[in-house]
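Before the break, one more example. Copy the sequence into your notebook; we will annotate it together after we see the structure.
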Amino acid sequence: MGNITRKLNGLLQNLNSDKIADVAYKEFYKVTPRRTGNAKSKTKKQGKNIVADYPYAQRLNEGYSKQAPDGMVEPTIEAIRDYVFKTTGTKI
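Here is what the structure looks like once it is written out:
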């Protein structure tokens, strides 16, 4: 598993919720840049983990692409926070 998803996957494991994992995957996939489609096609959900299985994932997450200037992990974490707050009233 790559470095870009460790922080995100740690959060998902701690919350232990399939629904949160689904919310996270949908957001991560949505914000993944699509120039040739390779990054999106190699982004998968395995259990509660998101796997970005391509060599330039870290670069994309660091804002290399104009399509995802904020990367993928930070917007995904924000989506998780929004979902948890909306459903529980708890800020994380």
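The CA atoms of residues 67 and 77 lie 18 Å apart. The radius of gyration is 13 Å. Try to locate both features in your own notes.
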